Amino acid sequence: MKQTYINELKNHIGESVVLKGWLYNSRSSGKLVFLQLRDGSGIVQCVVFKPNNEELFESAKSLGQESSIIVTGNVKEDARSPIGVEIDVTGLEVVQNAHDYPITPKEHGTEFLMDNRHLWIRSKKQNAVLKVRHTVIKAVRDFFDSNGFILADTPIFTPAACEGTTTLFEVDYFGDEKAYLTQSGQLYNEATAAAFGKSYAFGPTFRAEKSKTRRHLTEFWMVEPEVAYAHLEDMMDLGEGLILSIVERVLNERTEELETLERDTAKLEAIKSPFPRIHYDKAVEMLQEGHAKGELENRFEWGGDFGAPDETYLSNQFGTPIFVHRFPAAIKGFYFERDKDRPELALGIDLLAPEGYGEIIGGGERATDLEFLEKQLEEHNLPRESFEWYLDLRRFGSVPHSGFGMGIERCTAWMCGIEHVRETIPFPRMLYRLKP
Ligand code: 4AD
Ligand code: MG
Question: What's the per-residue H, E or C state across the chain?
């Protein structure tokens, strides 16, 4: 008989089905054994009644947590079941009887769970988070694909830094040449945008972040759109559209998972267009007011970069995502276009998510002028020869263009309402964590 998946059981009421999976949990009482079977698509209770088949009953009773089993049974409507059905077991094939599964239903510490991440991802909540991640990624791809963007992925081995030299991972590239793991595909996106008009890259990016925070991974996935003939305002429109379509998709397609995660969905439903757009000067004013009111410990000074408490304070003033735009050039990358009226400002944007999730999107308008960029490379101590190809983009058909990057893990953590980004990627890489 063909395998049926648990999430399709509702269409098979009254039928006999074959389910293939693992034993999530079990209990027995008198003549009954209740097997919680999971198959990746869901969990269903399978009931074994001793008088029906004694041998089958004993076999079911002997199973350890996470044993792999194939269950045959009848699908019965059951109002008490979270999925509306239950299985009356008529057959059981034990593929492997597992014993001493390390993750039991009791509480475990995070370090222990992280060491057992290869098993932990089978748990209900972790499973739900990773399914939300899947939907975030699907929403991102569909958004760009249906808006005329061409996917043009960028290299992971790169000869130069994009986002400052302090967070570069260096790798040995056949001895004499130095290579780094990419921090961002942006510089290459600028080339593909000139080829396709609108392009995006989606892939892993790397930062040797020495900070151990709930928002930082050393390997994370970033989606990066880049658009020719686009300006700063266009990027805020694009970023807003992207976020709205992700939120809508997650709310529609991951209702069950959000429930498992006990996500307060009202907070996501409240996310509406337009997102406030705040000048950096105004943000500084707000932060200084916050300090004066005793709501922020440190007084923020103009010129500084926002810390986590600053970002949280700013977004809390609105309860929706907000854009902050035009940052002091001194704290931004070499490639930013400057504000014409105030050249000390870089045409950058950050999108700050509500509920303390901080910066989800970072990007802006790129400098178009060859001489300006040559000077910038010098000031930032970047090796000119590694950037010659990039300068070509200003020699041959230079146009205004803009783009941004959105971190998949930070966005997923926000959608799920979970504390730490480490649970939003199947196998996180962080300071002090390279295993499993
Ligand atoms: O603000 P960032 O550094 O921007 C760039 O890399 C640009 N070159 C992107 C572009 O314009 N094409 O990073 C963009 C986003 C952040 O807003 C955040 O969501 C995520 O990437 N991010 C991280 N996520 C997890 N761990 C880290 N260490 C991250 N660093 C950045
Ligand atoms: Mg940033």
Answer: CCECCHHHHHHHCCCEEEEEEEEEEEEEECCEEEEEEECCCCEEEEEEEHHHCHHHHHHHHCCCCCCEEEEEEEEEECCCCCCCEEEEEEEEEEEECCCCCCCCCCCCCHHHHHHCHHHHCCCHHHHHHHHHHHHHHHHHHHHHHCCCCEECCCCCEECCCCCCHHHCCEEEECCCEEEEECCCCHHHHHHHHHHHCEEEEEEEEECCCCCCCCCCCCEEEEEEEEEECCCHHHHHHHHHHHHHHHHHHHHHHCHHHHHHCCCCHHHHHCCCCCCCEEEHHHHHHHHHHHHHCCCCCCCCCCCCCCCHHHHHHHHHCCCCCEEEEEEEHHHCCCCECECCCCCCEEEEEEEEECCCCEEEEEEEEECCCHHHHHHHHHHCCCCHHHHHHHHHHHHCCCCCEEEEEEEHHHHHHHHHCCCCHHHHCCCCCECCECCC
